[in-house]
Design goal:
By secondary structure, the chain is an all-alpha fold. Helix content is 79%, strand content 0%. The protein starts with a helix and ends in an 8-residue tail after the last helix.
Length: 53
């Protein structure tokens, strides 16, 4: 599931973070951290209703 969300949402998440943070490198790092955390938690806690959020 995380792979599908990553494929479908990476661009949208990154663009939102670039707009919010104003820094591409920082946004990319934050997005990577968020997906890494999701990969750790989702198997244990379940996939959220809106995983892109």
């Amino acid at each position: 599931m995380i792979e599908e969300v990553f494929r479908d949402q990476w661009g949208r998440v990154l663009a939102s973070l670039v707009g919010f943070l104003g820094d591409f490198d920082l946004a990319e790092e934050a997005a990577q951290d968020a997906f890494a955390l999701a990969a750790e938690r989702w198997p244990r806690d379940g996939t959220p209703l809106n995983p892109g959020a």
